[in-house]
Amino acid sequence: MYTPEFAADPYTAYAHMRERYGPLAPVYLDPVVPATLVIGYHAALRILHDPERFPADPRTWQQSVPAHCPILPMLEHRPNALRSAGPAHIRYRAANVDALDNVRQHALHATVRQIALPLINQICITGHADLLTQYAHPLAFQVLNAILGCPPEIGQRVAAGMAAIFEGVNAEQGNVMLAHALTELVDLKRRHPGMDVVTALLGHPARLDDLEMLHQLATLYGAGIEPQTNLIANTLRLILSDDRFSGDVLRGSLSVRDALDDLLFVDPPLANFCASYPPFPVEVEGRVLPAHQPVLISMAACNNDPAIASNHLAGNRAHLTWSAGPHLCPAQPLAYLIAQVAIEQILDALPEMALALPVEQLTYRPGPFHRSLTGLPVQFPPTPPLALT
User: Fold this and answer.
1) What are the pLDDT digits (tens) for 85-124?
2) Global pTM?
3) In this structure, which CATH number among 1.20.1260.10, 2.20.25.110, 3.10.580.10, 1.10.630.10 belongs to the domain 4-379?
4) What are the CA-CA distances from residue 375 to residues 129, 296, 352 (Å)?
């Protein structure tokens, strides 16, 4: 799963796995890291709702992994809700849920629009753009910085470190860069609190210490930059390349929300994740999974499991893209809103936009976890800048 060949055509790989192994496939996340990939929808639901047999704490597993392993930063233990179990998970999750609940959706809608319009104005007069690097990524990055109260210079280093971790290229260096930048952010917000998520976390009754704060923020940035960027870019790819959406969204017979739901079901931006680590051998679907070895949920494969196949995906949110059970993503309403407003703004501004090359020629970044384009080139008639009101 770490090869460029897998990144280029993961769905063929999932089909081969399903044919050979059924709902649970043995895989390698790295040449020295074996794991089990759950590709059956119903098996995934059972595992996600069974934190006793499938806890998310990786500390025993990671003792056997070389320190320089490129996927370790994505899976290693951190004192946060994503990589903990039991009372620790409950404490961390409560802090994050409460802090995110402070984000007012009406104000966030305005923030996304205020960030989107200048980005659109930078490209609209040229007649061509890379929507990934010139729109989706800077928008996701700037919106998250606004939510967290992070200055751009710190955020730039956070984004660079997070990208290295997701790709598994220079991941160890990226992890160090990320830690230094987030430490600066926590220090800044202690001295200058504001109406933002970092300040809310600092003041939460959970009384998070500096190390815990760093790792809550690492989780928020991990979810808020790479997957959010991919959600925006991949949904734009779908709208611009699929006849079901290319005209109907612009005519209004289908909504951007319909396109988002379809994308989240058939091609989720975070394709393989939700790791757990059985503390003892566990039998699932007639197969015994070894103790202290990663079990990853393939949201991409599970959502496309023939056992739940449906031709009606618009409005269907039974997919596993947001996970399920005690680790269900608490930020999904915000992620939906950010992506929807971002996509609506650029489609309204550039209604004649089209892909600059056939969709099958688009390429994807390597890595076992994400579904991330290397670029999304488009062309359109040059358009005057929008009024920034």
Assistant:
1) 999 999 999 999 999 999 999 999 999 999 999 999 999 9
2) 0.92
3) 1.10.630.10
4) 10, 27, 19
